[in-house]
Task: inverse folding
């Protein structure tokens, strides 16, 4: 059985780990590796390596850092297929989807290549007579990233390229369910010329996470995962004085107006609900059909959902792979059952799907549930599987109120032909990322990504300008160079500009 090590100080190492967790191939259902689970001592080793590396990396010039970022960009670009294969074999998503995730991560690396421009400060000449004021930003130190299973390359890349470009060093604690891609990423950083110790990977579970949260050597924590854990991370890391951004779960709604192109909307709804088996924080899990759109949306979505090709992610003919674990499969199947018992109507039922040749795989087929109401479990829970609920309302105002009453606020979309309706929607919803006829409105790397309400704990979104701000802190310098013979008197009242 293959063992997946940590990556500390520029090499793969078992450190002192004694515990392990199984890593499965979700398509076959078979265990294919075991991953080490770090103890507090292992985490301390990684934080120690990052702390030591910070001394010189934080002093590296902007052009030295930009050179490494450009080289890393080439390394990742040349390894898209290898990274995608690692993702597919441990996560289950289809190869094209895995390659798309790497591409979106790569865009953050490209954004970080512009670090000399991004870190330019401000300068005010002659703020007072003979006095200039200027500002610049410095890195924080060793920072940590704790990431979920569903984007094992992209989500860590929301963090480490920006953190490292800003002059920080990084300890990544990826999901223990699909840990291999992070090891290849560590090698790619090394090949790009990043000094040892600047990027480290510790695998693990709660024990490793708690050690990072409590470590006095960690200056900031970026987290992406489910809402209960995000809330916990924010509270515990804040209690030890760290800067924290913790992105949580989601329940993303798409409104379909009666004036929308229903076929276009249904096509995009199905892809947004069932792509990656619904295991995306920006997946659409609730369609809100307004007025006369109702029956037409349900009919079109039902036909398209039933036609989705489900199977191994390695087969290019498939559009959707398995879910990540047996436990996830059982939880999703159970929730579909509650929809039925609580009075909703299944128009496509993905329970019991068996894929030829992959009988032990963790598959759940696309599922569409009509007549869902806000008190049902399928609506209240983040299912994180291939399940689309349809709710029906009479007006767009009702639809917006429904979205705003939901505790999550990650992403949302509207399908409409009316600019006026779209504008009312974009101004009215309390959600961080909004799509107009775009069902998965993931911001480009040069904007920042993040939700509102229970989808984010902390102030700053990831990557883009807010990412640079999160991983740096400002200094403002007020300076005067008096000439020696100049005999100005110091004043004893509070300094004001002259
Ligand atoms: P998760 O919360 O179970 O795990 C995320 C990370 O936290 C993992 O590294 C895991 O090892 C660690 N962790 C798990 N339990 C812990 C505990 N008790 N104490 C400390 N650490 C713990 O999430 P997941 O199942 O890996 O990922 C799916 C979730 O992530 C979904 O809720 C999804 O919406 C969310 N997500 C959100 C975004 C976003 O941008 N808001 C993006 C991707 C995923």
Result:
């Amino acid at each position: 059985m293959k063992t997946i090590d940590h990556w500390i100080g520029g090499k793969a190492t078992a450190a002192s780990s004694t515990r392990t967790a199984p890593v499965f191939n979700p398509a076959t259902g078979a265990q294919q590796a075991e991953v080490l689970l770090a103890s507090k001592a292992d985490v301390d080793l990684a934080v120690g390596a990052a702390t030591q590396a910070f001394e010189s990396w934080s002093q590296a010039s902007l052009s030295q850092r930009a050179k490494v970022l450009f080289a890393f960009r080439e390394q990742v670009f040349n390894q898209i297929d290898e990274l995608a294969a690692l993702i597919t074999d441990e996560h289950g998503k289809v190869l094209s989807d895995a390659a798309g995730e790497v591409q979106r991560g790569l865009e953050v690396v490209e954004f970080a290549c512009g670090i000399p421009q991004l870190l330019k400060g401000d300068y005010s000449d002659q703020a007072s007579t003979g006095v200039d004021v200027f500002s610049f930003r410095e890195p924080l130190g060793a920072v940590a990233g704790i990431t979920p299973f569903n984007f094992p390359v992209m989500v860590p890349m929301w963090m480490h390229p920006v953190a490292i470009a800003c002059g920080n060093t990084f300890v990544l604690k990826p999901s223990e369910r699909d840990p291999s891609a992070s090891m290849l990423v560590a090698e790619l950083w090394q090949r790009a010329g990043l000094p040892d110790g600047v990027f480290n990977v510790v695998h693990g579970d709660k024990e490793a996470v708690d050690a990072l949260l409590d470590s006095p050597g960690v200056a900031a924590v970026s987290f992406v995962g489910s809402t209960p854990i995000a809330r916990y991370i924010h509270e515990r890391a804040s209690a030890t004085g760290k800067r924290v951004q913790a992105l949580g779960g989601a329940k993303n709604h798409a409104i379909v107006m009666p004036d929308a192109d229903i076929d276009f909307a249904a096509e995009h709804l199905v892809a947004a609900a069932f792509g990656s088996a619904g295991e995306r924080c920006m997946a659409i899990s609730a369609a809100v059909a307004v007025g006369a759109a109702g029956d037409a949306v349900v009919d079109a979505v039902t036909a398209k959902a039933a036609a989705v090709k489900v199977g191994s992610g390695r087969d290019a003919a498939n559009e959707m792979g398995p879910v990540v674990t047996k436990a996830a499969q059982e939880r999703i199947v159970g929730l579909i059952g509650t929809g039925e018992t609580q009075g909703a109507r299944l128009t496509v039922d993905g329970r019991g799907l068996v894929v030829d040749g992959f009988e032990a795989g963790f598959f759940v087929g696309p599922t569409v549930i009509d007549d869902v109401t806000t008190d049902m479990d399928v609506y209240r829970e983040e299912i994180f599987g291939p399940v689309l609920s349809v709710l029906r309302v009479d007006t767009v105002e009702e639809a917006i109120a429904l979205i705003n009453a939901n505790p999550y606020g990650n992403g949302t979309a509207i399908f409409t032909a009316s600019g006026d309706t779209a504008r009312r929607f974009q101004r009215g919803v309390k959600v961080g990322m909004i799509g107009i006829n775009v069902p998965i409105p993931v911001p480009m790397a040069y904007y920042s990504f993040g939700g509102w309400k229970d989808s984010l704990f902390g102030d700053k979104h990831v990557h883009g300008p807010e990412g640079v701000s999160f991983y740096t802190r400002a200094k403002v310098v007020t300076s005067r160079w008096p000439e020696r013979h100049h005999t100005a008197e110091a004043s004893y009242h509070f300094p004001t500009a002259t």
